[in-house]
Amino acid sequence: MSVAIIILILTLTSLIPIYANIHGAGKICDELGRRSLSTRPHSVSISEFGAVGDGKTLNTIAFQNAVFYLMSFADKGGAQLYVPPGKWLTGSFSLTSHLTLFIENGAVIVASQDPAHWEGVDPLPSYGRGIDLPGKRYKSLINGNMLHDVVVTGDNGTIDGQGLVWWDRLTSHSLKHSRPHLIEFISSENIIVSNLTFLNAPSYTIHSIYSSHVHIHKILAHSSPESPYTIGIVPDSSYNVCIQNSTINVGYDAIALKSGWDEYGIAYSRPTVNVHIRNVYLRGAYGSSISFGSEMSGGISNIVVDNGHIHNSLSGIAFRTTKGRGSYMKEIDISNIDMSRIGTAIVANGSFGSHPDDKYDANALPLVSHIRLNNISGVNIGVAGKLFGIQESPFSSLVLSNVSLSMNSGSTDSWQCDYVYGSSESVIPEPCPELRRDEDAYSRASV
Ligand SMILES: *[C@@H]1O[C@H](CO)[C@@H](O)[C@H](O)[C@H]1NC(C)=O
Ligand SMILES: *[C@@H]1O[C@H](CO)[C@@H](O)[C@H](O)[C@H]1NC(C)=O
Ligand SMILES: *[C@@H]1O[C@H](CO)[C@@H](O)[C@H](O)[C@H]1NC(C)=O
Ligand SMILES: *[C@@H]1O[C@H](CO)[C@@H](O)[C@H](O)[C@H]1NC(C)=O
Ligand SMILES: *[C@@H]1O[C@H](CO)[C@@H](O)[C@H](O)[C@H]1NC(C)=O
Ligand SMILES: *[C@@H]1O[C@H](CO)[C@@H](O)[C@H](O)[C@H]1NC(C)=O
């Protein structure tokens, strides 16, 4: 294929309307998958920049210098930074556009545990503060700001965040700033992250914020079930995102879709839209395998999740929000999911989570509607559903069909519902009356 055609295809892909309908979301993975991996005409190895892969030498300067050097190839087809087998200790470093970071089989990029090797940066505008504590946050280990055409891949190379010290600092309240993520892209587009193993992220494994055309596939993200508030992949105020063929086992949420926090997210107003998730194996031990919110103040819509295996999690699928968030979560289709060993299969919680500060508007009510769950099966489930909306803004048009959950022995109260409305078909065990209402009657009543 000629360069001109490839450029044409990339151009067309970026013209997909931002607010395409939900059926568009179910095509995102195929669309992003059609873009071929650009082979970079130039490649350098990190060892050419003085890096030493002994697991002890700090290589931050080498990574920074290598990326700086490769900037000059951006208009020459881009370049590859090759990381050969070895253990490459480093603090945080930034990527550049038209760059492929290739982590070879047997290569491990190891994150320094010394906070001095991590820069403190201003909070994200849609959050107004760090997630763990007010004020700054540490820059992520590998980060990109306002980039395009970046590939982070390898032959199953590893990025190890050595998160244990950060988890301890969180629980002992000795963090100076909010914990860093492993990879973060801010305001970037045409990003691929693939073929890698991520271990022990201090906080999130992959954070995509204010970004678009992000394709994450064939990754393994792992941290211990006890790691506090570790999250796998977070599409945040981003559009046209695909996550597929991946395994994520973390302490809190495996995949969490977000879009900003209370008054900061409302003011910034950047939704998460057109996200396609398929063929995923997830464990969110003390959180949820798939979660929406609770930070959702820019809006979340047009999300398709198809074909997932969810196991050993406190909840399976969770929709979280609270008064003060404003905005909406709607047009979400989740189908063909099997679950095992889950505390509560489906959760909706309208009084979840805290506020960034006391300046939020308690009258900013979120709207949650048009959520469809189809072909869901589960074994060893504690509670089928805990669905609690908001009195002043009940969750509506929640549609369950072909849901079959086999409960733990001893569980009796299968569905608990309040301030939610919707319909159901072929749901076992029999759902609460709120999910057996005629929706039109509800909308007439609420006019
Ligand atoms: C991904 O990894 C597999 C081996 O696990 C390898 O065969 C394939 O070429 C890799 N793809 C890329 C883009 O590196
Ligand atoms: C990739 O590496 C991880 C850890 O080294 C291993 O558990 C996993 O099985 C590997 N995946 C593939 C596809 O080789
Ligand atoms: C995802 O997995 C499916 C089924 O194994 C395979 O056909 C497809 O090529 C994979 N796609 C990517 C982008 O990894
Ligand atoms: C909703 O979440 C809050 C905060 O985690 C929790 O205290 C509350 O019990 C949850 N509500 C329900 C009904 O589970
Ligand atoms: C219901 O969902 C299961 C998977 O959970 C699937 O095997 C079955 O074919 C579905 N039934 C119908 C009628 O779609
Ligand atoms: C539900 O499962 C059936 C049988 O496998 C399949 O035909 C149907 O397309 C599935 N529904 C959705 C929404 O994926």
UniProtKB/TrEMBL annotation:
Keywords: Glycosidase, Hydrolase, Signal
SUPFAM superfamilies reported in the protein's UniProt record: Pectin lyase-like
Source organism, top-level taxon: Eukaryota
GO molecular function, one term: hydrolase activity, hydrolyzing O-glycosyl compounds
Family matches, as Pfam families: Glyco_hydro_28
Signal peptide span: 1-20
Stored PANTHER family: PECTIN LYASE-LIKE SUPERFAMILY PROTEIN, PECTIN LYASE-RELATED
Family, as annotated: Belongs to the glycosyl hydrolase 28 family.
Protein name: Polygalacturonase
Lineage, uppermost ranks: Eukaryota, Viridiplantae, Streptophyta, Embryophyta, Tracheophyta
